Amino acid sequence: MAWNNHSFQILISYIIFCFVLIHSAPQGALITQLPGFNGTFPSKHYSGYVTVDESHGKKLFYYFVVSERNPSEDPVVLWLNGGPGCSSFDGFVYEHGPFNFEAGKTYGNLPQLHLNPYSWSKVSNIIYLDSPAGVGFSYSGNESDYITGDLMTASDSHTFLLKWFELYPEFLSNSFFIAGESYAGIYVPTLAYEVVKGMDAGVKPTLNLKGYMVGNGVTDEEFDGNALVPFAHGMGLISDDLFEEVMAECQGNYYNPTSNNCESKLAKVDEDINGLNIYDILEPCYHGTEMGEILTGNMMLPSSFRKLGQTERALPVRKRMFGRAWPLRAPVRDGIVPTWPQLLKSDTAPCIDDEVATSWLNNEAVRKAIHAEQESVAGSWESCTDRISYNHDAGSMIKYHLNLTSRGFRALIFSGDHDMCVPYTGSEAWTRSVGCEIVDEWRPWTSSGQVAGYIQGYANNLTFLTIKGSGHTVPEYKPREALDFYSRWLAEKTI
Ligand SMILES: *[C@@H]1O[C@H](CO)[C@@H](O)[C@H](O)[C@H]1NC(C)=O
Ligand SMILES: *[C@@H]1O[C@H](CO)[C@@H](O)[C@H](O)[C@H]1NC(C)=O
Ligand SMILES: *[C@@H]1O[C@H](CO)[C@@H](O)[C@H](O)[C@H]1NC(C)=O
Ligand SMILES: *[C@@H]1O[C@H](CO)[C@@H](O)[C@H](O)[C@H]1NC(C)=O
Question: E strands of 345-460, at which residues?
């Protein structure tokens, strides 16, 4: 029988089929056990390194949680924490990962892992990526790579994605989203833009990007810098008098004060809000040794306020050790952005008690189980590192959002409305300024029959959403509400 075109096509399909079978999910990456967890994994977990620059040995670490629902249909989401310099294990351990980490009985003991009923892996395949090299478990054989910035980070993360999908080709046809919070307000749109340029240029494999989401994200020097004063006034943290005075003196320009009178009014604003927890104005401010006292404290707050800050998390949110990490009125500007440890001139991560993550991720058996290099190679794991020197070289994100949304990519800009680090007032103002027509007018959205926040939908699939009573890291403070809006948005349902 002669070969005809049809049998040839069948043969080719068969070869491709085998290739895909052989090359699906690298076996060595499968995680088979985790110290601290003695239950059954609800889905497959994989982890390892992807080399983004062979000559330098520049390697990015990922932890991939397969969806617990329908892996082949559910979207793939890349998750990025910010900093710059903070590891995406922050999201894995404290926010929307598959486990809740219960602190060890004594300091330094390994935590116990319980299943997280609000894990984002309930509805999506999710990749936690440590980026750029130097952060978390990611590292480079050449230390010059630790001098980096927005554009280099986006380009390396794009290379990572192309190589990652080559390792996991069975996920190439799933919808793909990029998500992150805080400084990832820069990482997410710059990376999405790189991905789209690659798609336009026909770079293989073809990524199936559909959209992106940013939580309490850094966006624009002016919008973010002007957000604090109206936030402080709206939250009842400064008086009407001071608000009127600061408006009159500064003429709405708080991010770059040009007169001494404006400066001195802003200094009064700072005085009023200085003692608050910048990540959640409802949470008490922890100062190291006083932590025990404050844990039972909170009593100055009226009970309605305390309820607002309550969470359904099985475990308490992280203790914040100091009032704040980021100086007030210091929006991210072009140029070198100090990492948090550099800012505080201290080795320990500021404001955050990261004992649970730090003890677990620096344990030799844990590192072995998740295929992370040992300390001698990749360094010790820190929630936020000062190993990198980081240059904010991509400017304002607004032009990126305009480009991406006008091309049909969906964008969800969400904001915990009690965060004072990147206050919702800035995100609300810049999304409004983009000038899209309102298609879903400001309204409450609900979770389990209660108002969980507010939403405003714009044309071009741009959505702004608040989470009522939540601090900076939304899924940590409001895990049920977060899973609700996350799954509705991914499924293109009304939130
Ligand atoms: C896991 O360990 C906990 C605490 O030691 C114990 O209560 C539980 O029964 C164990 N579960 C399994 C599945 O072995
Ligand atoms: C590190 O990379 C830089 C820039 O490519 C190069 O000039 C330098 O020689 C490299 N250093 C080492 C030790 O390989
Ligand atoms: C978006 O960016 C791409 C790549 O630079 C460019 O070709 C395109 O014209 C831009 N589109 C819009 C609407 O700005
Ligand atoms: C909004 O998103 C949907 C689903 O991806 C898409 O079909 C539609 O074209 C988008 N709309 C606009 C205006 O880009």
Answer: 389-392, 410-416, 438-447, 450-458
C-alpha distances in Å from residue 294, one per residue of 280, 283, 300, 405, 418: 15, 10, 11, 44, 19
Cα 186 to ligand 4 centre (Å): 23
Ligand 3 binding pocket includes 7 (Cβ within 6 Å) = no
Q: Which of 308, 309, 326, 322 has its CA nearest to residue 270?
A: 326
pLDDT digits over 15-32, tens only?
554 444 445 778 899 999
How far CA 80 is from CA of 157, 185, 393, 400, 478, in Å, comes to: 10, 9, 18, 17, 18
b/e sequence 309-348, b meaning 16+ C-beta within 10 Å: bebebebebbbbbbbbbbebbebbeeeebbbbbbbbeeeb
**Six-digit token string for 140:** 């480079």
Q: Is the peptide bond before 111 cis (omega within 30 degrees of 0)?
A: no
Judge contact between 308 and 469, C-beta under 8 A. yes
CA-to-CA distance for 217 and 182, rounded, in angstroms?
Answer: 4
Least confident of 54-58, 107-111, 350-354: 350-354
Residue numbers annotated as active site = 182, 419, 472
Handedness of CA 471, 475, 481, 484 (dihedral sign): positive
pLDDT confidence bin for 204, thresholds 50/70/90: very high
Q: What is the 333 CA–ligand 1 centroid distance (Å)?
A: 49
* Closest ligand 2 atom to 143 CA: 1
- Which residue in the block uniquely carries the two structure tokens 């499968």? 30
Quick one: tokens of 416?
């915990």
Sign for the CA dihedral angle at 267, 268, 271, 274 comes to negative
pLDDT at residue 104 in the model: 84
Q: What is the pTM of this model?
A: 0.89
Domain boundary assignment for the chain: 29-221+393-490, 223-357
CB 462 within 8 A of CB 413: yes
CA distances from 159 to 21, 51, 139, 374, 448 (A): 23, 9, 15, 24, 41
User: Which CA distances in Å does 242 have to 80, 113, 264, 270?
Assistant: 38, 48, 11, 11
User: Residue 442 is encoded by which pair of tokens?
Assistant: 């400001």
Could you give the CA distance from residue 5 to residue 158 in angstroms, rounded to a whole number?
37
**Of the candidates 97, 467, 451, 445, the residue with the CA atom closest to the CA atom of residue 280:** 467
Q: Which of 53, 54, 55, 56 for mutating ligand 2's site (highest number of atoms within 8 Å of CB)?
A: 56
Helical (H) or strand (E) element with 242: helix 240-250
29-221+393-490 topology per CATH: Rossmann fold (3.40.50)
439 phi, psi to nearest 5 deg: -110, -15
